[in-house]
Amino acid sequence: MTPTSPASPASPSPGPAFEPWSPSFVADPYPAYEALRAAGRAHWFEPTRQWLIPHYDDVNALLRDRRLGRTYLHRFTHEEFGRQAPPAEHEPFTTLNGNGMLDLEAPVHSRIRRLVAKAFTPRTVENLAPTVERLAAELITSLHADGGGDLLSRVAEPLPVAVIAEMLGIPAADRGLLRPWSAAITGMYELNPTEESARRAVAASEEFSAYLHELIAARRTDPGEDLISALIAAREDGDVLSEQEMISTIVLLLNAGHEATVNTTTIGWLTLFRHPEQLRLLYDAPDRLRDGVDEMLRYDTPLQLFERWVLDDIEVGGTVIPRGSEVALLFGSANRDPARFTDPDRFDVTRPAADNRHVSFGAGIHYCLGAPLARLELGASFGTFLRQAPGLRLVAEPAWSPGYVIRGPEELLVTW
Asked: For the residues of 369-392, what is the DSSP string, one character each?
């Protein structure tokens, strides 16, 4: 079966256009989201051949709907689903990505998640707290001593890399490899990635996988207290993770956790600089920070879009979306839906948790396993700035990176 667009594709929605390759759209997609919500619940987008879903209730429901999946290969072949197999030259990326929990469905997803959860426990995250606080303090103290600089490269990027590396037991000398590998691999998550993006992702997948093969072999011989050793030891009823499952899990932990934390840090600070009265509230009452971090995640989420395949025909707002289609769940739009959030375009660090059930960490079986770690890192980073280096201010409005799906500024120049 070949996926189809509607018999008469809807005309472009009135108001600002959905243009994910436009710099002005990437810098501020929210007026376009408002127009999409007003125009309906499902919109065919020809450039990516996807159905755009902009409303909170629909996004939340479709994240949990078992008629959709991150993959279709547990039920169909590529041919049966009307899709072409990935090019053979993409194989290293395809294997790495296809064995990660984020792109698997039950029962394989359920099995791997149970085994990973035995290693990546709440206690694991709790035990990291002193390390996260120490690393955040060191980075922020250095930036403060220099009178400022690029908060992205000096704090936002190195902190989650250092935390993940510490958790995995990656030697300090090798940690500079992680960020370039992550950036190259996640480039394939953008809409219609280029062949150059694919080439970089394939090379990074090969290099990162080879590196982890060696590191896992070393841990099998000489286990430690790190997460890789725990993943090797994790078992349930005699079942263990395969080598490829471990490698894909480790890469997913780095990519998903790192990219989200980096961009939440920079977007969060940019939002606070644009709302100085809200920044003052956090300086005056740091205990508001937990709710403040969730408000940053809601107000301008780093992950704007999440894709799922339609495994059986569904209906959204009277529009039948056939099997073989792909939906693009617009997290950024859902998080600003006035049907779910009070005054959604207002940034409010005191917004109560009951009014802030955002979808930035997903929902259903693919809810972000690393959400507690992300919150720990963000709390440590923002909290340390507020306590130890008050008076931070923006030097200049930043340019935005070209990516839309995983979105953030190219730099964030700050001073005191």
From this structure: TTHHHHHHHHHHHHHHHHHHSTT-
Q: What is the tens place of the pLDDT at every residue in 192-245? A: 999 999 999 999 999 999 999 999 999 999 999 999 999 999 999 899 999 999
**How many helices (H) does the chain have, and how many strands (E)?**
16, 12
Q: According to the model, what pLDDT value does residue 15 have?
A: 66
One-letter amino acid for residue 277 of the chain: E
For the chain, what is the largest distance between any 2 Cα atoms, rounded to a whole number of angstroms? Answer: 62
CB 79 within 8 A of CB 382: no
Mean pLDDT, rounded, for 130-154: 97
The pairing of beta strand 413-415 with beta strand 148-150: antiparallel
Domain boundaries, the chain: 23-415
CATH fold group of domain 23-415: Cytochrome p450 (1.10.630)
Which residues are CB-contacts of 371 (< 8 A; sequence separation ≥ 6)? Answer: 361
Distance from C-alpha of 332 to C-alpha of 378, rounded to nearest angstrom: 19
Rounded Cα–Cα distance for residues 234 and 246 (Å): 10
Q: Which two tokens stand for residue 172?
A: 């300090």
Q: Is-contact 115 359, C-beta < 8 A? A: no
- d(CA 389, CA 409) in angstroms, rounded, equals 22
Interstrand relation of 50-53 and 326-330 (parallel, antiparallel or unpaired):
parallel
Residue 72 has pLDDT above 50, yes or no: yes
Mean pLDDT score of the chain, rounded to an integer? 94
d(C-alpha 377, C-alpha 289), whole Å? 12
- The kind and range of the H/E element at 305 are strand 305-310
pTM of the full structure? 0.93
